Amino acid sequence: xxxxxxxxxxxxxxxxxxxxxxxxxxxxxxxxxxxxxxxxxxxxxxxxxxxxxxxxxxxxxxxxxxxxxxxxxxxxxxxxxxxxxxxxxxxxxxxxxxxxxxxxxxxxxxxxxxxxxxxxxxxxxxxxxxxxxxxxxxxxxxxxxxxxxxxxxxxxxxxxxxxxxxxxxxxxxxxxxxxxxxxxxxxxxxxxxxxxxxxxxxxxxxxxxxxxxxxxxxxxxxxxxxxxxxxxxxxxxxxxxxxxxxxxxxxxxxxxxxxxxxxxxxxxxxxxxxxxxxxxxxxxxxxxxxxxxxxxxxxxxxxxxxxxxxxxxxxxxxxxxxxxxxxxxxxxxxxxxxxxxxxxxxxxxxxxxxxxxxxxxxxxxxxxxxxxxxxxxxxxxxxxxxxxxxxxxxxxxxxxxxxxxxxxxxxxxxxxxxxxxxxxxxxxxxxxxxxxxxxxxxxxxxxxxxxxxxxxxxxxxxxxxxxxxxxxxxxxxxxxxxxxxxxxxxxxxxxxxxxxxxxxxxxxxxxxxxxxxxxxxxxxxxxxxxxxxxxxxxxxxxxxxxxxxxxxxxxxxxxxxxxxxxxxxxxxxxxxxxxxxxxxxxxxxxxxxxxxxxxxxxxxxxxxxxxxxxxxxxxxxxxxxxxxxxxxxxxxxxxxxxxxxxxxxxxxxxxxxxxxxxxxxxxxxxxxxxxxxxxxxxxxxxxxxxxxxxxxxxxxxxxxxxxxxxxxxxxxxxxxxxxxxxxxxxxxxxxxxxxxxxxxxxxxxxxxxxxxxxxxxxxxxxxxxxxxxxx
Length: 775
Fold this sequence. Notes:
With 775 residues, this protein is of the alpha+beta class. It is 44% helix and 24% strand.
């Protein structure tokens, strides 16, 4: 026999046969180093050296050869014949078909590339024992490359299987414990819970019989209330009544809340247990006390057959835990019954409380309605009308009056009187504070006044009526200011309940807030009107002064121009230059004031033209490029190649960009850069230009950024050359961009200042040819 595939030598990998045969996914190829021949005797010698018990199966003849150690694993003598049929007969009937299929498929699987064979099964030994075996082998190929033999070993894995079985039982017990916990926490039906408990305990703990007894101390008896038996041959103890005899060892230990456990009923003097041992073969006995709040409630009794093992410690602990949780379930059921009784007793109180809550809900809805109505208005008279009308209609009052106090005149002025069916009545009625000093003192203290069946000078129209008077107080900064009062009236003999008093008090508080808001609004309105008048006067003054100053300054400029042509000394020329520079600054200030005044007044009309970027941008930037070069500043000009013509007011846009470039040249230190960039963009579904002016070497403080567009605001610390300015350039640029429906923003960080101008096109369709554009 020869192996055709030579991937690894047998002598180099002997452990594959012993421990890795089931997992290795390659063929064994024993090779003799000198002539490449295969010698089976060397393989067998190696297997014998392992002392594991090897076997060899001829796949063509079905002949099985096994070592003495292998036969010993099946309880056979070393010299006894052990065939493949005898092997299959010793395999457990439930595993026999699976073992046969493993051997039958070994050859075909080897041809498919998997020469390994591995199968676990139970085996009946000759002495009657049942052991778990693991047979592992590898298929060897013949000279023609066809499967020839299977060589393998058989291992006894009984201890491993027993450990796995024990682990499975432990998992089942954990599942039972979790199910019982869940049933206890979610169910208050004790019969169902007891039934589930005894069945699950009997199944997982492998008990032949499980009985739950209840202890009735008044009757001195134990009653089996729930039970479970594994087979009909085991008698049930359901409804069995056992006398509470302390002489019985089981009852004696349970009375002391101790676990009762015996391996053989013959160890106790219980005739009933002895009779069950003889007739029903019941053996190991376990009793678990069930106690509620330290008092014995009953017991959980478990029995096994004589042929079955005794109760293990972990099983006893599990049964004890189940007993504890059954006690919890019983306690929950008792509490539930008490709760049911309490629910019956509280049902009437709940209905009464629901009525009160419904009334409170309606009161809250009314209060919210009144609050929303009065706070949505800033008219003081409308607020008072709403409060009086809603209170009278909602509470069924005969009338509702509201009076406002005048501390300066020391009088109370009746603002209005609302009566259902008659509406609002207004009349000038003033009552001095001295006429109701006692009532006024009580109202100033935040308390209400209650009158019944008497007359009062403050409310002459409601003589002998029941009156409830509440203060309208405005609490501010720890002080309470009495603004007035609300008076509700009812016919003689009727009263105001606590609910109505509470509701009217809350309405009065909201009324005070609404009145304060209305008066604050009126005050603000007056202040705004005064500010507008002052601003109008200021604008008129600036406009008049600007016009009056423009004429003499123009004459001065003309005179300076004539003087500059005269033959003056160097000192006179210097004075003349200073005079000309200051005159130009004054004229710039006046022109900017007039321009800003015209834009703010709406007297400036747009003169729309089409700007060609190729002509307008270089013409605009060239003077500033030269100025930057003279000041040793770097000037960069960029624009997108696809920049489209723009329809806008050329003069306004030129002024805005020129102002930004002028500031950049003014404030940028020598050696720093100025960048002017144009790009095409869309905002608010409109095409236009985004113009960015960026200069480095300078930064606007964060606290100054919100004020740069305010009139006459300047940042002196940025003017390093002391060039000065009017403080109107940026505000004028901002107004100009608003007039062009665009925007002007500023940002400053990292040692640079960035102004961004968004200028939309006033027309979406450019002309065929832009006027002034070269062809």
